[in-house]
Design goal:
The protein is of the alpha+beta class and 494 residues long. The chain folds into three domains: 1-65 and 384-393 and 431-463, no CATH class; 74-310 and 353-377, no CATH class; 321-345 and 464-494, no CATH class. Helix content is 32%, strand content 22%. The protein is built from 13 helices and 20 strands. It has helices spanning 8-18, 26-37, 72-89, 105-113, 115-139, 193-213, 230-233, 235-246, 296-306, 343-351, 375-378, 412-420, 443-453; strands spanning 45-50, 58-62, 96-102, 148-156, 162-171, 173-177, 183-187, 217-220, 223-227, 259-261, 271-274, 277-280, 283-291, 316-318, 324-327, 338-341, 362-366, 434-440, 474-478, 484-489. The strands form five sheets. It has a seven-stranded antiparallel beta sheet with strand order 11-12-13-3-5-4-17. Strands 14-15-16-19-20 form a five-stranded antiparallel beta sheet. It is globular and about 75 Å long. The protein starts with 7 loop residues before the first helix and ends in a 5-residue tail after the last strand.
Length: 494
């Protein structure tokens, strides 16, 4: 992914001038600054050496930023580790199905930054799907069943526009108590597009009713009024989110507060867009992806998809005329395959991908919830304790799981070996094992070591903030026919 040391200080100045001195929240600036330092040896590193005395090849492994918003490397590691722990310690050998719900444009800004509203959306969506499974399996002869789900919040579309939506990995069936006091799984026989439409109507009706009670939505004549409460708590993020949702550069110094009269588009009535994919009044529900109980590769691929980073390294490239190109995972309906934009507009979209502190992005429901009395009965058994401790721990065993411990720390080398079949613990020169020697964290030690091997001891310099106008380029859609369509003019507004 393109590191932008030339526009980060300009972004900070543009935001402060555009919002009457209001700066980006500290957690957002920390995420941006940490990404620029991610993988730099001058910020600290681990030193590993081959165990073979005749080889002694040395490697330096830079520390990562540990970001939660958009860093492809750190979020890729989080994706692989969470997938491994879910498969080994949470999800039983049962079929899985992905349910994806997206919200109307008018609700996305509020859901992105209002923790209470997002929690209600996630809870009602999960409860509605689990309740549908209970009713359907009861009709098929499995009463009093209990389902389970792991729900992940994604914050962006493939073009990095703010689009908070939920990916739920549900058990495609329910557990019922067996005659011996052990839960037995009963799989769903069939899921039709009509069933998905029924769930969507339930989800939409419950969400609209609940959001009205919370004061987010209010019936007003023939329109629906959206209470934009997020603008009062985080005015900078709320305004940038509105721009990122619409696909426009930041709107400038105006910060809207109070109520915005917006009519949710469409009329009641479900529209089928694809098999098991339906839409109603801007709400969409997709449930066409599943993985069988014995399909290990399919289950892992499904979890990788729902936990994936918002952008991959290869999908952000240097474009023409100083623009940045975002390659889309799949073409838009109009044939667009890539989006070109100026770097500052890209940074404004990345800002909205950073979740607020202490905000869970992965939640567990049903039998997977920590409060469920069935959890210990349906999840895989804990791993056995190792027979004997390893005398000298290799790189992959810095933190070994304890006896009975459900989750564990996976080193990046272990995750690469498990996910991609890459063995980074083997010396590429002699085939020996690589061993951790030390962690270099002190600035004096870092500088002395890097100077000795001829590596840079300082991070790349950041260009000073330039003055207005800040946004000087247009955002362009790229199609295979080389045609370009101007979406909007990012003329300077702040």
């Amino acid at each position: 992914m393109v590191r932008d040391n030339n526009n980060i200080l300009t972004l900070y100045r543009a935001v402060e001038e555009g919002f009457a001195g209001a700066a980006l929240p500290a957690f957002v600036r920390q995420e941006l600054d940490g990404f620029l330092d991610c993988g730099l040896l001058c910020r600290g590193f681990a030193h590993v050496v081959c165990d073979n005395q005749s080889c002694r090849q040395s490697r330096l492994v830079a520390f990562s930023c540990g970001g939660r918003g958009f860093c492809p490397s750190c979020l890729g590691r989080r994706m692989c580790q969470t997938t491994a722990n879910l498969l080994d310690h949470v999800l039983p050998k049962a079929p899985l199905r992905q349910w994806v719900v997206t919200l109307p444009f008018e609700l996305r800004r509020r859901v992105a930054y209002d923790g209470k509203v997002f929690s209600e959306v996630s809870r009602l969506f999960t409860d509605s799907v689990l309740a549908w499974y209970r009713r359907r399996l009861a009709d098929e002869g499995a009463p009093n069943g209990r389902g389970g789900a792991v729900v992940v919040m994604q914050r962006a579309s493939s073009d990095l526009r703010t689009n908070p939506h939920l990916h739920g990995v549900f058990l495609d069936g329910v557990f019922v108590m067996g005659p011996e006091g052990v839960p037995v799984f009963r799989a769903l026989s069939r899921l039709s597009t009509t069933d998905v439409a029924e769930v969507l109507q339930t989800v939409r009706a419950r969400l609209v009713r609940r959001l009205r009670r919370l004061g987010v939505l209010a019936a007003y004549r023939d329109a629906t009024v959206v209470d934009d409460g997020g603008a009062g708590t985080e005015p900078v993020l709320a305004q940038l989110a509105a721009a990122a949702i619409a696909g426009q550069p930041p709107a400038g110094p105006e910060v809207r507060r109070g109520r915005l009269p917006i009519a949710l588009r469409g009329k009641p009535g479900v529209t089928v867009s694809a098999p098991r994919c339906v839409e109603e009044q801007g709400f969409t529900l997709h449930a066409n992806t599943c993985a069988g109980a014995e399909d290990e590769r399919g289950r892992e691929a499904l979890l990788h998809y729902v936990l994936r980073p918002p952008i991959a390294n290869d999908n952000v490239q240097d474009g023409p005329e100083g623009l940045v190109r975002i390659l889309l995972k799949r073409p838009f309906s109009d044939g667009t395959t890539a989006i070109d934009m100026d770097p500052l507009s890209l940074l404004c979209r990345l800002v909205n991908l950073v979740p607020a502190p202490r905000r869970h992005t992965v939640t567990y429901s049903g039998v997977f919830s920590s409060a469920s009395s069935w959890r210990s009965l349906v999840i895989p058994p804990p791993p056995r304790a190792p027979d004997a401790p390893t005398p000298v721990a290799p790189v992959a065993d810095l933190k070994r799981p304890k006896a009975g411990q459900r989750s564990r720390y996976w080193s990046w080398a272990q995750l690469l070996a498990r996910t991609f079949g890459l063995d980074l613990e083997t010396c590429d020169r002699c085939g020996g094992r690589m061993r951790l020697v030390s962690l270099i964290t002190e600035p004096d030690s870092i500088e002395r070591y890097l100077t000795h091997i001829g590596e840079p001891t300082e991070p790349p310099p950041r260009a000073p903030a330039r003055g207005p106008p800040y946004y000087q380029s247009r955002v362009l859609r790229r199609r295979p026919s080389a045609q370009q369509q101007d979406l909007f003019d990012s003329s300077p507004t702040c």
